[in-house]
Amino acid sequence: MAARTAPDPIPPRKGVNKADLSRTVGERLGSNQAGAAAVDAVLDAIIRATVAGDRVSITGFGSFEKVDRPARYARNPQTGERVRVKKTSVPRFRAGQGFKDLVSGSKKLPRGGEVSVKKAPKGSLTGGAAATTKKTTKAAAKKTTAKKAAPTKETTAAAKKTTAAKKTTKAAAKKTTAKKATAKKTARQR
């Protein structure tokens, strides 16, 4: 009988940090300094927009947003005592469908080439005829990184349309509740 040898151990996977990412981007841009500046600029823009309360969406990759958590009561695990936790805001990242597909393995990474971020399909939140008003507001949100942009004709028109639609739905809701109330009163009187 031959002695069995242990299989080779799997080498530990090295994580990617900011320096590695800067180096990779620098290889494509031609210099490490340009790569570091590009990574810093992208991260700075994402952080500033998220802190300001804007949602940063990168189609196919994901979105970053600020989420408010209300004040609540929690339990101290050591003593079981009830403790009050203050209201706080936290960042949230949600992966896009293209990114999810690549990670799950349903789509494969191209060899040697770069991963392309495709446009959103029709009918989704960022594309198609159903989301034309959202497109104009998202375009206006992207223009603002540190400052608020001056409203354009498109965004003001979209805002007017949505407020008009809200007013008509509120009026219709008030009418139906008034009709229900009068129907209940007449039913009680009989």
UniProtKB/TrEMBL annotation:
GO terms for molecular function: DNA binding; structural constituent of chromatin. The keyword Iron-sulfur does not apply. InterPro entries: Hist_DNA-bd (IPR000119), Histone-like_DNA-bd_CS (IPR020816), IHF-like_DNA-bd_dom_sf (IPR010992). Keywords: DNA condensation, DNA-binding. Residues 147-162 have a biased composition (Low complexity). Gene3D superfamilies: IHF-like DNA-binding proteins. Residues 96-190 are annotated as: Disordered. Residues 135-146, 163-190 have a biased composition (Basic residues). One of its GO terms (cellular component) is cytosol. Signal peptide: none annotated. GO terms for biological process: chromosome condensation. It holds the Pfam family Bac_DNA_binding. Belongs to the bacterial histone-like protein family. This is DNA-binding protein HU-beta. It comes from Streptomyces capitiformicae.
